Amino acid sequence: MLFSTATGYALRALAALPEDGTYSLAKDLAARLELPGPYLAKILQGLVQADILESVRGPKGGFRLTRASHHITVGEVVTAMEGPDSLEGCIMGFPSCNCDHPCPLHEAWSAVKKQVASSMTEATIRDLQIIGFRHGKDTEIRPLRHA
Q: Which of 53, 94, 103, 138, CA to CA, is 20 to 30 A from 71?
């Protein structure tokens, strides 16, 4: 896996939030997505700190997106969760790997990093929602609907 489990959970939770701006409780998201509640709550708080989510305490509170899902990129979420240097470094772990002293996988990894970075800046949370609609399973990422 290229990124942490927490990043995957963050992406799934963001894609499951409603588009209408209503708040969702962490425990409801966790139950719907079958994720561990306390761990998801901690992840969501991190996304609040990154200004991807906003939160309100209380019975009518919860979490909601700070802006429309098509304005939040996967790359922004990955950076919030993994840090700005998540794709940096040598794939083989060599501290001195660079263009002047490449490891055996340097060129291949550089090409992969470039493609992944490009894809993450183009893909949005809305794209993840659309994919979830196509799968049509209850455990897939689909925005919550409120009555």
A: 138
